[in-house]
Write a structure and sequence with these properties.
8-stranded antiparallel β-sheet; mainly beta; 11-stranded mixed beta barrel; globular
């Protein structure tokens, strides 16, 4: 008898791996070598209750109704199509035929693809098994795999879907590669779900993948298999917009590597979070350190080989320590970064048994290199390997630390929150606040930083004036750099923590400030959080504070920057008896800044260890009316100096040059300099224009170049090419050039429901993209007080203008801007004649704000739970505002200060826009330009008695006005091109004028109706008595005009039951004809509110 066969080491390793997992995995004898060892796979096959897919080349199963919803890209899926499963796909919704998707990714339907290829199970060449399982043993196995990849997760699955492709063959056409004939693949996908999230596990046993490509039926040669995830595309009438997608592997080397590598620390195991509150796919965060490593050089090479990057149309930087995991998504996002610099090589001890029972021990180093960490660098940076790691550095034209890079000379924005607990003077009760907004605007090429902190109570605001360095840290971050010196952003990339201790000399009060900067968010803005706690001296209300220019030394050593200084400030108290007393205070300032630096590149440490920050001018202000604290300062950084050196006087370093805000100031000798436009801009440096491609421009370019291939399928009627504005944003109205159909899109180019219009009709779409801001905001963006009299107020994107009225005539030479808000898109405008306040809606925020016509800063009164607020109306008698929201499809009411919100209607609305009130009679009117069924509706102001007033012969009813003197309701229609009026209490309507061009909004005063027109960029006056246009006014700057309203010199006469004492209501008083209704706001938990009619 011959000797018993020796058991190879891999079989014992497989046995050990199987024993490591609880519960039985395979009934096969552990030591018997198998052609396709499967120690990784969860139990499967008919004996475990699996259904078997019908054998074939392109078989599909019926939908598997799930007991627990699968969450996929943020959407819950109850019915799962385990279809086209022959081809290595789990389809989340109905798939197309294989000839339309094989060889392409993303696919048009939602797909989970552990191995998408042309597979074939005919004639007994393999099986596909599937089932849903909630047994405790299987749930435990799935949970163990997930926790390998996500060790900190508390996820516990309640149901899993298991799909197993067992010994499946590649499709073989006649006369094709005979070497593929006997090759077979085995792999498994496990989808685990709880109430709130879902995970996918892809399992590839050792040697289970014997082929990596299949031949195309379309004679395209061999097509590599594809592993990844694809969200269903969105279908429009004539084109298809791809969804998000994630590619894990799409070339033969990557596929071959699947069973030898992992993102969960165990060979052949790949784990992903595929759905939760996020709409992204998140790979496991365990680096490619495997618990068993092959000893051959070939396998070591394969283990470290990165997967292929394929970003589709949009590159997204995934910041994880796993292999490159590319994503294409709309809109772009940035993901949180792991620790930087890279960790030291990890040493893992591994045990392996041979047939003698001897245990061999060895270890492996996992080198952090650019090959598997390029994604940790900015897209505007290069990655360079060093003996012990890698470093990132920004390319020419960009500034930063390589992890984060911004274009040189480009203005920057910083947003964040502030909270605090501060004792003021001897007061035993602290002032506490939280969730307070901080916004900063930086003109980088001048080193000027403007910082505003809102809703700081007066009891604290004046006392915080000396602490300009709360915002001064932003000035340090973007200080003008002298040659050879670096500002804070170049050193830290805007990712650091700062702890500051302020000691006020005299009474020894102390304040501790903690700030955390978290880098650049998905909007391209830096983010900051600030906490303050301690005691500060009291500064009397109404006082002013002056701070002289100062210098401060910053010392850098091994990822830590320290600084200390003593500063003085002068307080001028409010005048008493014509005398204003002054006194001087002082404090000592100590701060420590901690950040991660790349330790491998010695050249990064060439910057001087000590640098001097020079703050040339400081301005501090507290506005007690708006409770806003403002700091403004000009900053530069360079060598220790007394300021007398020639280099310090160069305009580039003092910020006194005349370069465009999107330009770089290049210093020459002495006081000479020249201006150079930043990356993405062109011009002479004094004036720069943006040229960097936006997403719209990119899609437009690809569509024109590819003949429509970008949209993933053949066009049914010629191709659609997106249209972009001069700044590269999607035009709000998109039209198909061949068919003439038009529709509205949001800022990401997605079609808005209910807006598609037939040939020859353009829907009245609104752009949510604010025009680029050319300069920084002024320190006090106040309204300009209006002279006495009646005025027209109208919106023109980022500003509100006014035209005085003399009788019924526009006094055009008196027209001027009332308010500039350059980063907003103002749509609706309304006026409160009692308090002389203007109210407006902004769809770029979105938000609702107001400002006094007597002058002063604007105030945002509503900025949460808004989609696209458009029309707005003021009930000056009941002291309420009403507005429409065309994205949330609802109409709401609130008090004039934005409190006590209540939804009046959230059904039966598609595109609500204009809204007006008749407060004396208690009626509400609004338009809905739904392309399917446009209408004008009315109700009482409490939301009762809702009914359609006009529905016939309407096209695009944009504007609506109610004349309080004649009781006429009038509207402008961009579809019928008419201006019409009616008495709401009588039948019939009267056409005032027709053939107008593209009206948007309308208001009335005296015998005239005034409307804004998009085609004419004008305010047009029409005498409604004789039905004749009698005047028009075009602002100096030509652009679209939006909402218009009349600012009456005196309120119209009349009253309602809410005029006095709020109608006796505890909260909202809403007028009705001959009465009123008391209503409670929504979400009134714990509020003592009484409702009554």
């Amino acid at each position: 008898m011959g000797a018993a066969p020796r058991c190879p080491p891999w079989a014992l390793l497989a046995l050990a791996a199987a024993m490591a997992l609880p519960g039985p995995l395979l009934p096969a004898p552990a030591l018997q070598p198998q052609p396709h060892p499967e120690p990784l796979l969860l139990p499967h096959g008919p004996g475990h209750g699996d259904a078997a897919l019908e054998r074939g080349d392109d078989s599909r199963s019926a939908a598997l109704e799930l007991s627990r919803a699968l969450r996929f890209y943020g959407t819950a899926v109850r019915s799962l199509h385990v279809s086209v499963a022959t081809n290595g796909i789990i389809a989340v919704n109905e798939p197309s035929n294989e000839e339309k998707y094989l060889g392409q990714f993303p696919v048009s339907f939602g797909a989970i693809a552990p191995f998408m290829a042309d597979l074939d199970t005919t004639d007994g060449r393999g099986n596909v098994y599937y089932r849903e399982d909630s047994s405790s043993e299987v749930l435990k196995l799935a949970s163990d795999y997930i926790k390998r990849g996500f060790p900190e997760t508390t996820f516990e699955p309640s149901s899993v879907v298991i799909v197993t492709w067992k010994l499946v063959a590649p499709y073989q056409g006649p006369g094709e590669d005979p070497t593929l004939e006997e090759k077979r693949n085995t792999f498994q996908a496990v989808l685990a779900s709880s109430d709130s999230s879902s995970y996918a596990i892809f399992l590839y046993p050792e040697d289970s993948l014997q082929f990596y490509s299949t031949y195309s039926k379309n004679d395209d040669g061999k097509i590599p298999a594809m592993v990844g995830f694809s969200q269903a595309s969105t279908n429009y009438y004539f084109w298809e917009k791809p969804g998000s997608y994630n590619i894990i592997a799409n070339d033969e080397d990557s596929i071959r590597n699947l069973h030898k590598s992992s993102n969960a620390g165990k060979k052949g195991v790949w784990v992903f979070e595929i759905g939760s509150s996020s709409d992204s796919i998140v790979p496991a965060k365990i680096s490619n350190v495997l618990e068993s490593v092959e000893s051959s050089e070939q396998d070591q090479e394969m283990t470290s080989k990165p997967f292929m990057s394929d970003y589709g149309s949009t590159e997204i930087r995934q910041q994880y320590v796993t292999s490159n995991f590319p994503t294409a998504k709309a809109p772009p996002r940035q993901f949180p970064a792991q620790q930087f610099p890279p960790q030291e090589p990890q040493v893992i001890d591994v045990e392996e048994f041979d047939e003698t029972g001897i245990v061999f021990r060895y270890h492996t180093d996992v080198q952090q290199t650019c090959a598997n960490n390029r994604h940790q660098c900015s897209v505007h940076a290069i990655c360079k390997d060093y003996p012990n790691g890698f470093c990132c550095s920004c390319i020419a034209g960009y500034k930063g630390n390589g992890r984060q890079c911004v274009a040189e000379g480009s203005p920057q924005r910083v947003n964040g929150k502030v909270k605090g607990r501060i004792f003021v003077g001897n007061n035993p009760v602290p002032v506490t606040f939280e969730n307070t907004d901080l916004h900063s605007y930086v003109v980088m090429n001048q080193g000027r930083a403007y910082t505003a902190i809102s809703t700081i109570p007066e009891t604290l605001g004046y006392s915080l004036l000396p602490l300009a360095s709360i915002g001064g840290i932003i000035g340090w971050m973007f200080a003008v750099e002298q040659q050879g010196y670096k500002n804070g952003f170049s050193v830290t990339g805007g990712e650091f923590t700062r702890q500051t201790e302020v000691t006020f000399l005299g009474n020894n009060e102390k304040l501790v400030i903690k700030q955390k900067f978290s880098g650049i968010d998905e909007h391209g803005h830096l983010t900051i959080s600030t906490e303050m706690e301690g005691r500060i001296p009291e500064i009397p209300s109404g006082a002013s504070v002056h701070i002289e220019p100062y210098t401060e030394l910053y010392h850098t050593s091994s990822s830590v920057i320290t600084s200390s200084s003593t500063r003085e400030y002068t307080v001028t108290e409010p005048e008493r008896d014509g005398v204003a007393s002054t006194y001087t205070g002082a404090y000592q300032w100590r701060q420590t800044i901690s950040f991660d630096e790349c330790i491998h590149d010695e050249s990064l440490h060439a910057t001087s260890a000590t640098q001097q920050l020079s703050v040339d001018s400081v301005f501090v202000l507290y506005n007690r009316d708006e409770q806003i604290l403002r700091y403004a300062m000009s900053n530069s950084i360079g060598p220790i100096s007394d300021g007398s050196a020639d280099i310090n006087r160069n305009p580039c370093y003092t910020g006194t040059h005349n370069c465009d805000t999107n330009a770089i100031c290049r210093p020459g000798t002495g006081n000479r300099f020249f201006c150079e436009c930043s990356i993405g801009f062109r011009g002479d440096g004094n004036v720069c224009y943006g040229v960097e491609k936006t997403r719209c421009q990119h899609e437009q370019e690809v569509a024109l170049a590819s003949g429509g291939a970008f949209f993933q399928r053949e066009m049914r009627v010629a191709q659609f090419v997106p249209q972009c504005d001069e700044h590269g944003n999607y035009l709000p109205t998109q039209c198909h050039s061949n068919t003439g159909y038009c529709w509205c899109v949001d800022r990401d180019g997605n079609e808005i429901d209910g807006t598609r219009s037939g040939p020859g009709v353009q829907p009245p779409c609104l752009s949510t993209a604010a025009p680029p801001v050319a300069i920084g905001p002024s320190v006090r963006p106040d309204t300009i007080p209006l002279p006495p009299g009646t005025h027209l107020l109208f919106a023109q994107s980022g500003k509100i203008e006014h035209v005085p009225l003399e009788g019924n005539n526009m006094k055009k030479n008196g027209a001027k801007a009332l308010l500039h808000i350059p980063d907003k898109v103002i749509i609706g405008v309304a006026y409160d004649c009692m308090d002389k306040m203007v109210y407006w809606t902004d769809i770029s925020g979105p938000s609702i704000s107001r400002a006094s016509l007597h002058g002063g800063e604007p105030t945002t009164i509503i900025k949460t739970d808004l989609g696209s607020p458009e029309g707005i109306a003021v009930d000056h008698l009941g002291r309420n505002i009403f507005w429409t929201d065309s994205q949330l499809d609802r109409i709401e009411v609130a008090r004039l200060d934005g409190r006590q919100r209540r939804i009046l209607f959230d059904t039966g609305l598609v595109n609500p826009r204009a809204i007006v009130v008749d407060p004396v009679r208690g009626n509400l009117y609004w338009t809905d330009w739904n392309r399917e069924a446009p209408k004008i509706e009315t109700s009482y102001m409490d939301g009762t008695n809702r009914r359609i007033l006009v529905k016939d012969d309407l096209g695009l009813p944009n504007g609506l006005t109610f004349d309080p003197y004649s009781s006429m309701l009038c509207w402008v229609d961009a579809g019928t091109k008419k201006l019409e009026c009616m008495n709401p209490n009588q039948f019939g309507r009267r056409k005032i004028v027709e053939g107008i061009q593209y009206p948007f909004s309308v208001t009335s005063y005296g015998k005239n109706l005034y409307y804004t027109d998009w085609r004419r960029d004008a305010v047009v006056a029409v005498d409604h008595m004789v039905s004749i246009e009698n005047d028009n006014f075009q602002p100096h700057k030509r652009s679209r005009l939006y909402g218009i309203t009349t600012a009456f010199a005196q309120c119209p006469g009349g009253h309602n039951y809410c005029s006095v004492n709020n109608g006796g209501c505890t909260h909202l008083c809403l007028a009705t004809p001959g009465g009123r209704t008391c209503r409670c706001p929504d979400n009134t938990v714990g509020v003592d509110c009484i409702e009554r009619n």
